[in-house]
Specification:
The strands form 6 sheets. The chain has a 4-stranded antiparallel beta sheet with strand order 1-8-3-6. Strands 2-7-4-5 form a 4-stranded antiparallel beta sheet. 49% of the residues lie in helices and 15% in strands. It has 4 domains: 151 residues, Jelly Rolls (Sandwich); 117 residues, CBS-domain, CATH 3.10.580; 151 residues, Beta Polymerase, domain 2 (2-Layer Sandwich), CATH 3.30.460.10; 143 residues, Four Helix Bundle (Hemerythrin (Met), subunit A) (Up-down Bundle). The radius of gyration is 27 Å and the shape is globular. It has 24 helices and 20 strands. By secondary structure, the chain is of the alpha+beta class.
C-alpha cells in the first residue's frame, strides 16, 4: 500500500511524472521515508553532505545561506510539497546551504546510487533536476562573485517566499475594549504606530483604529475623546496567519484597499503588518506602484505611471514567481488604472444621471491579462425613467468615448472587434443586457455563442456592483432552462483542437508571417479557458477566472473533477511560457505576440507542452462523447 501511495504521488509531480509505469514502480521500491518535526535542521551549511535526493511529500522547508564573513543568514528559497532538495550537496560533495523544516515535513529519500542510474537513463529527468537545482545555485554564485547579495533578488524574492510572520511588527499597539479614544491616541503616539488593534475575548482582534479614523471620526466630527475606543474602531479586522506568504497578504491589501493587517499565531494576535512594511521590504513592490496610481489626478500624470507598472513583470519573472501570481498582480494594477480613469471621467463629465457599472470582459474579466493588449469592456446602467432616457444615453455616450481615449492614452489599445463600452451596442440599460443574454442562450447561433464566450466572463470593476450581480443572477437562472446552449458551447470548444499531430508531435504554422511558430494563446490557453467556462456554466459556478472556476469544480461531479490538478498545472505552465516570451519581445523592442518557436524551448519544456496539449485533447474527447448530439 505504501508503494502504491508513492507511485500515485510521484506520478503527479515533475519530473517523475514522465516515467513509464513499471519504471516508476521500480523506483519507488528504492525509496525510504523520513519525518522532520517543525524546526528540524535537515541539512546544515558546511555540515555532512546529503546522500539522498529528498522529495517533499508533505510540509515546507526553508533554504538559507550564510555568506563568508557575515553572521547573518539570508533566505534563498522555500520548497514545498512535490519539490526536491539536496541535489547540489549530493553532486558537489559540499553542503552550501542550511535547510530547516518550517512545518512538520515528510520526505521520500531517493538514494544517490539509484538517482545516478535514473539520471543516466532518462535525460529529461537530468535536465529538469539540473535546471531546478543548479541554475539557482549558479545564480547565487555569480552574484557572490559580483559582490552582490546571495539572496536571489533580495526584496523581490522575499515577496514570494517569506511568510508574513517574518516581517510583521511584534510591537503593535493593542488596546482593551474598555480603553478610551484618548488613551488609545496617546499609546499610538508613544509607540510610534499609525494604528492600534482592539483586542476582543481571548486576545483575538475585535477592531482597528488608524490615524485616519482619529482624523475623520474624532477631529472632523467632534467625537468625545473620552468615549470608548470601540465607538470609532473599524471592523471586522483583516487578519492573516503568520505562515501566510507575503505575496498573498499584499494581494489582499490591494484588493481591499487597506493599509493595516493583523497577524495571528494559532488564532491569537502576534503583530501587525502595514503597507509601509512592504514598501521598506521592496521598493518596487506592487503596493508602491498602486500608491503612485492612486495619487494621479489627470490622464497626463496617470499614463507614464501606468506604463511604468509593466516593469514589475521583469522583476517577478527574474525571481521565479508563478504565472498565476504574476497575472493576479498585473490584473490588480490594471484594475487600479482603469478605475482611476473612470474617476477622472466622472470628475470631467459630472455625476451620471443613473447608477452604472463598468464591466471588464474576456481575459481582463477573467483577471488573466499578461501585458496590456486590447480593451475589452462594457457598461450596464440602471433602467432610467422615460424622462431621463435620452439624457442617460447621451451622458454614457460621452462617458464611454472619454474612457476609450483615456485608456488608449494609458496604454490599452482599442479592441479590433469593437467589444468596448464606446460601441453603443455594449453600453445599455440592465433590461437590454438581460435581453442580450436571454437571446444568446435561447437561440445559440455561432455569433451568439462567440458573444457568450466574451461577455459571460464579465467582472464588475467600478460603480454600482449590484447591477452586475443582477445580470449574473439572470445568467445563472437561464442556463438550466436551455441545455441546448451548453451543447453549442461544447461544439465550439472541441473545434479548437490542440496541435498534436498523428505521430504525437506538436504541429506548428507551416507558412505565413509566423511560419514554424505556435500560437500559445489560441492553441494553448484558450482550450483550457473554454473547458473551465463550459463546466462552470454547467454547474452554476459564478466565478469568472479560469483557476477560480477549476477550484470551484474540484471534488464535484463533472467530467473533469479528477483532472483539476492537471488542468491547473497545464494552465500555469502555458501561461508562464507566454509571459516569458512576451517579456523577451518587450525587452527587445519587438511587437508583442503569442507565437513561440519550439526550438527556443528545452526538451523538458517541449515535453511539458505536449503533455498539456494531450490533457486538453483528452478532455475535449470526453466533451465530444457527452455532447455528441451537438457536435458538427
Amino acid at each position: 500500500m505504501l508503494i502504491d501511495d508513492a507511485v500515485r504521488f510521484l506520478s503527479q509531480i515533475p519530473p517523475f511524472q514522465f516515467l513509464e509505469g513499471p519504471t516508476l514502480r521500480e523506483l519507488t521500491q528504492s525509496l525510504t521515508m523520513e519525518f522532520y518535526p517543525k524546526g528540524t535542521v535537515i541539512l546544515q551549511q558546511d555540515g555532512p553532505v546529503s546522500e539522498s535526493l529528498r522529495i517533499i511529500q508533505k510540509g515546507l522547508v526553508r533554504i538559507s545561506i550564510r555568506p563568508k564573513g557575515s553572521g547573518d543568514e539570508e533566505v534563498s528559497d522555500y520548497r514545498e510539497r512535490g519539490e526536491t532538495f539536496g541535489l547540489v550537496s549530493l553532486m558537489g560533495g559540499h553542503q552550501k546551504t542550511t535547510i530547516v523544516a518550517m512545518q512538520d515535513t515528510i520526505c521520500y529519500l531517493l538514494p544517490k546510487d539509484r538517482l545516478n542510474d535514473l539520471m543516466s537513463s532518462h535525460p529529461a529527468i537530468t535536465e529538469y533536476l539540473l535546471q531546478f537545482h543548479l541554475t539557482k545555485y549558479v545564480d547565487m554564485t555569480s552574484r557572490e562573485i559580483q559582490g552582490k547579495s546571495l539572496l536571489l533578488g533580495s526584496s523581490d524574492r522575499l515577496l514570494f517566499t517569506a511568510q508574513v510572520g517574518e516581517i510583521c511588527r511584534a510591537t503593535a499597539t493593542v488596546m482593551a475594549q474598555s480603553a478610551t479614544i484618548r488613551e488609545t491616541a496617546r499609546r499610538m503616539v508613544a509607540d510610534r504606530q499609525s494604528a492600534a488593534l482592539v483586542a476582543g475575548p481571548g486576545g483575538a482582534p475585535a477592531g482597528i483604529v488608524t490615524d485616519s479614523d482619529l482624523r475623520a471620526k474624532v477631529v472632523a466630527l467632534g467625537h468625545s475623546i473620552d468615549a470608548p475606543v470601540t465607538q470609532i474602531m473599524s471592523q471586522p479586522v483583516i487578519t492573516v496567519d503568520e505562515k501566510e506568504p507575503c505575496f498573498e497578504v499584499v494581494l489582499r491589501m490591494l484588493q481591499g484597499n487597506i493599509h493595516h493587517v493583523a497577524v495571528t499565531r494559532e488564532g491569537s494576535l502576534c503583530g501587525m503588518v502595514t503597507t509601509h512594511d512592504f514598501m521598506v521590504l521592496q521598493g518596487r513592490s506592487p503596493l508602491a506602484f498602486s500608491e503612485d496610481i492612486e495619487m494621479q489626478t489627470t490622464l497626463e500624470g496617470l499614463a507614464p505611471v501606468s506604463q511604468k507598472a509593466l516593469t514589475i513583470i521583469g522583476a517577478l519573472l527574474r525571481e521565479g514567481a508563478r504565472a498565476a501570481n504574476i497575472i493576479r498582480i498585473i490584473s490588480e494594477l490594471n484594475d487600479r488604472v482603469v478605475r482611476r480613469v473612470l474617476e477622472i471621467a466622472e470628475k470631467e463629465l459630472g455625476p451620471p444621471p443613473v447608477p452604472y457599472c463598468w464591466l471588464a470582459l474576456g481575459s481582463e474579466g477573467r483577471k488573466e491579462q499578461t501585458f496590456r493588449t486590447d480593451q475589452d469592456n462594457a457598461l450596464v446602467y440602471a433602467d432610467p425613467p422615460a424622462a431621463l432616457r435620452e439624457d442617460a444615453a447621451e451622458y454614457f455616450r460621452r462617458f464611454t468615448s472619454f474612457m476609450r481615449n483615456g485608456l488608449v492614452h494609458c496604454g490599452f489599445e482599442p479592441c479590433p472587434a469593437d467589444c468596448m463600452a464606446s460601441n453603443p451596442q455594449w453600453c445599455q440599460p440592465l433590461s437590454v443586457w438581460r435581453g442580450y443574454f436571454s437571446d444568446w442562450i435561447s437561440a445559440p447561433t455561432p455569433k451568439a455563442v462567440l458573444n457568450s464566450q466574451i461577455f459571460f466572463d464579465f467582472r464588475p470593476l467600478h460603480g454600482d456592483l449590484s447591477l452586475a450581480w443582477e445580470l449574473r443572477e439572470h445568467l445563472g437562472r437561464l442556463i438550466p432552462d436551455y441545455p441546448t446552449f451548453l451543447g453549442f458551447l461544447a461544439n465550439m470548444l472541441v473545434k479548437n483542437r490542440p496541435p498534436i499531430g498523428f505521430f504525437g508531435a506538436v504541429a506548428v504554422e507551416r507558412s505565413g508571417e509566423h511560419k514554424h511558430g505556435l500560437n500559445l494563446k489560441i492553441k494553448g490557453v484558450t482550450p483550457l479557458v473554454d473547458i473551465a467556462r463550459l463546466f462552470a456554466l454547467e454547474k452554476g459556478v459564478r466565478h469568472s477566472s479560469t483557476l477560480d472556476r477549476l477550484e470551484a469544480l474540484r471534488g464535484g461531479s463533472t467530467l473533469i473533477s479528477d483532472l483539476i490538478d492537471e488542468l491547473e498545472y497545464a494552465f500555469e505552465f502555458i501561461s508562464l511560457l507566454r509571459i516569458h516570451h512576451q517579456y523577451r519581445q518587450m525587452e527587445a523592442g519587438k511587437p508583442i505576440d503569442n507565437f513561440i518557436h519550439l526550438d527556443t524551448l528545452s526538451h523538458l519544456e517541449r515535453q511539458s507542452l505536449k503533455n498539456a496539449f494531450r490533457l486538453a485533447l483528452k478532455v475535449q474527447d470526453l466533451v465530444m462523447e457527452r455532447y455528441k448530439s451537438f457536435i458538427i
